[in-house]
Every structure is written in C-alpha cells, then in structure tokens.
Amino acid sequence: MQILEKFVDLIDGMNNIIGRLVGWLTTSMVVIVFYDTVMRYAFNKGNVALQELEWHIFAVVFLIGAAYTLKQGGHVRVDILFIHFSKKTKAWVDLVGTFLFLIPFCIIIVLSTQKFIANSWAVREISPDPGGLPARYLLKAMIPAGFILLGVQGLSEAAKNLFTIVGYKRKGEES
C-alpha cells in the first residue's frame, strides 16, 4: 500500500502544480480576451492571431486542467442517488466507474488521435487564416497530453477509493 500511496502523492502533486499553472493561464486568457474585445469594439482593430490565441489558450486550459478538476472533485456527476450512499459505496461506484468508463475513454482518445496529430506534426500545420498563429501541431499535441494526465489522475483517484474500501488510512488523513 505504501507504493500505491507514493504513486497517489506523486500524481496529485504533479496535477496540483499543473492546476496552478493552468490557473495563471486562465488569468492570461481573461486579459487577452479583454484587450481583444476593447480593441475590436472600441477601436475597430481586429487581430486574427489574437483571436486564435484566445481559443488556443482555452483549449489548453480545458485539456490540461481536466485532471486537476478531477482531483478536486469538480467534474459534473449526477448526485441524485450518489449523495445518499455511504463513503464506502461511493468509493466502489467511483472505482468501478474509473475502470469501466474513464480509463477506457482516455485510452481510446489517446490512441485515436495519434494519426491526426502525427499528420499535423508532419506538415508542421499552421493556421489556415491569414495572420493566424503558426505551430497548430503543438496545440493538437495537447489532446493526448490532457487525456494521459486525466487517465493517470483517474488511477490516483481509483487508488484513493481502494484505500477507502479496504479501510487504509494514509499519513495525515483524518479518521
């Protein structure tokens, strides 16, 4: 169990760092959107690259931040029945759901996007719009990266659920 506990600490720590970085990325996105909106509507000065940067940042925030959101329990769930379950039953539901839905879905996304991303890297894909951003292939590489992080965080959450099921108390955990 100690090895599993170290795995959980490593993954949770990594996604905590990533979550903080994504938070700052979100702040930069708000500043960029504000600037772009003011320039476009107050001064009639649009910028294609700036608009693309907005959705590129949003995509990275969404993809890379998903694992941190899972760690924090922020993903949407239907709690009609779940809220009435015991802690152990909730852990079972989450454990089974992780291996039945989350992990297979992450694997499918990572595997099914490989050719798509490889093609983008092969041609060093850029924006098709005049004045758009270069290196769109870097953005596309965030797809498997985000789902790998999500899958690994799912394994961390599964381990925590296993701890709950077997009654294992981690260091510093309250009873």
SSE blueprint:
Blueprint: H1 2-42, H2 48-71, H3 79-82, H4 87-112, H5 114-122, H6 136-140, H7 142-166
Helix pairs in contact: 1-2, 1-7, 2-7, 4-7
Figure out the total of helices. 7
> What's the gyration radius in Å?
20 Å
User: What is the straight-line distance between the termini?
Assistant: 18 Å
Strands, total number: 0
Structural class: mainly alpha
Summed over residues and divided by their number, the pLDDT gives a mean of 92
Describe the main β-sheet briefly.
Answer: none
| Beta fraction | under 5%
Indicate the percent of residues in helices: over 70%
Low-confidence stretches: none
User: What sort of overall outline do the alpha carbons produce when their principal axes are compared?
Assistant: elongated
